[in-house]
């Protein structure tokens, strides 16, 4: 077991190193300027970064029900929140006080998977038939989520899952197969999610570890902003909690988006303007070229899009058409919520293609700008214009197109933008993070 853990740690850390080495090899920013910027960020304390809106970080207790967690996230209009351990008491070690970060999209993934498993249970003649393994979980459970049945159930019995939809899929007695049963749960099941078991009593704690895409790793207020930037870029964190030494409660919550917005606010400063005025091509962008971009054809199933995001641990993918990959849209992991919020989609969530999915969202919501059409730029666009687009439109990626045909040439993410300005000094990882941080990053 120890050897397996060591291999896993080495593999994950190596993947971070490989990414950053690739960035450094493709980046065309003068090394002297990178060194100057890296040294500057090393001197800026985390405490200088603006506080979150309202000055208070919203937290969710681990024993909070899934239903209440959704209400909290929705009420504060946030997509994720740190999860606090109610059993920690007065323990001052943040590793005991916080269990991770729960994301709204992760909750939706769990709900959809549980929907599928409930349908399997209802269509099976006995518990043995219901638990035949990942193959029985169908397209969503086995392929889209890539999880085995025991892990997906997260402690719920098939009896409990079946009880959740008793009276909802009443015609299952006619011998319908699992896919048909799941496709016809419809509006009544959406009500079950909010009011009935197992959703009402399932806690955030019980699903957290199955859907953790990134470790919970805070920095202290007196840490350097360089450490934060490295965590958000090289080490792939979406957000970095900030704590005050001796007071382990979270003081601030720094996201990739907030950092890029902060960079955009540096307009007018010489060091920023000299970089921002250059074209992305002159700086070596996009770092991720067309053949490396994970994409989805518009006629493929939308569940396949979410499967690729989860497998590759990315937040969004471009929707393309034809062999030349003409870009026609964008689907992000945040959009998975529409599979529940739009009853037209939820009632047959396995059948819509990506184009069906986007068209339904456009016709029924105000999310046109987020989903369709995609946010793009040209190879001669300036880095400053790309940063402004990312900041003003609150998006996580801009797709680069090569010509008038909108042929996909690459993608620029928030992570790439942050990586433009910095590199990791020798021994910074060991000197500033320590063994515990390295251990967390390797999970």
Describe the structure.
The chain is an alpha/beta fold and 443 residues long. It has helices spanning 2-26, 31-43, 66-75, 94-97, 104-123, 127-130, 138-144, 149-153, 158-164, 178-183, 186-195, 204-208, 225-232, 256-264, 270-276, 302-312, 338-341, 343-346, 354-364, 368-371, 383-393, 414-421, 428-441, and strands spanning 60-61, 80-84, 98-103, 219-220, 239-244, 247-255, 288-289, 296-297, 316-321, 326-332, 376-378, 397-401, 408-413. It has a four-stranded mixed β-sheet with strand order 7-13-12-11. Strands 1-2-3 form a three-stranded mixed β-sheet. A hairpin with a 4-residue loop joins strand 9 (316-321) and strand 10. The protein starts with a helix and ends with a helix.
The low-confidence runs, each spanning 5 or more residues with pLDDT under 50, are 1-11, 120-190
Strand order of the largest sheet: 7-13-12-11
Biggest beta sheet summary: 4 strands, mixed
Which radius of gyration do the C-alpha atoms yield?
A: 23 Å
Structural class: alpha/beta
């Amino acid at each position: 077991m120890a050897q397996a853990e060591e291999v896993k740690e080495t593999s994950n850390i190596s993947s971070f190193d490989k990414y950053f080495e690739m960035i450094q090899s493709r980046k065309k920013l003068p090394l002297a300027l990178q060194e100057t910027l890296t040294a500057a960020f090393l001197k800026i304390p985390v405490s200088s970064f603006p506080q979150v809106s309202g000055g208070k970080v919203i937290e969710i207790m681990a024993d909070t029900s899934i239903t209440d967690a959704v209400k909290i996230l929705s009420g504060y209009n946030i997509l994720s929140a740190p999860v606090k351990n109610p059993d920690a008491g007065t323990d001052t070690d943040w590793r005991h006080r916080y269990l991770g970060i729960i994301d709204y999209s992760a909750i939706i993934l769990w709900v959809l998977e549980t929907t599928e498993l409930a349908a399997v249970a209802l269509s099976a003649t006995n518990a043995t038939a219901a638990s035949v393994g990942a193959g029985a979980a169908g397209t969503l459970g086995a392929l889209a989520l890539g999880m085995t049945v025991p892990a997906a159930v997260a402690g719920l019995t098939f009896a409990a899952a079946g009880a959740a939809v008793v009276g909802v899929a009443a015609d299952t007695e006619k011998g319908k197969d699992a896919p048909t049963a799941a496709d016809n749960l419809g509006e009544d099941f959406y009500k079950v999610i909010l009011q009935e078991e197992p959703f009402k009593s399932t806690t955030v704690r019980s699903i957290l570890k199955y859907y953790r895409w990134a470790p919970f790793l805070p920095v202290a207020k007196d840490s350097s902003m360089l450490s934060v930037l490295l965590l958000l870029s090289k080490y792939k964190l979406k957000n970095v909690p900030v704590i005050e030494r001796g007071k382990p409660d979270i003081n601030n919550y720094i996201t990739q988006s907030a950092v890029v917005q902060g960079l955009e606010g540096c307009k007018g400063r010489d060091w920023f303007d000299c970089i921002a005025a250059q074209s992305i091509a002159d700086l070596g962008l996009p770092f991720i070229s067309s053949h490396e971009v994970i994409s989805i054809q518009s006629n493929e199933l939308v569940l396949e899009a979410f499967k690729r995001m989860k497998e590759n641990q990315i937040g969004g993918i471009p929707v393309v058409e034809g062999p030349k990959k003409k870009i026609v849209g964008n689907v992000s992991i945040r959009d998975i919520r529409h599979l529940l919020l739009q009853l037209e989609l939820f009632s047959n969530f396995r059948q819509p293609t990506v184009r069906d999915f986007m068209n339904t969202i456009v016709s029924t919501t105000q999310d046109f700008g987020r989903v369709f059409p995609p946010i793009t730029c040209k190879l001669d666009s300036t880095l400053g214009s790309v940063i402004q687009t990312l900041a003003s439109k609150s998006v996580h990626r801009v797709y680069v197109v090569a010509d008038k045909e909108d042929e996909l040439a690459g993608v620029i993410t928030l992570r790439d933008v942050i990586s433009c300005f910095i590199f990791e000094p020798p021994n910074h990882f060991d000197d500033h993070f320590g063994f515990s941080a390295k251990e967390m990053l390797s999970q």
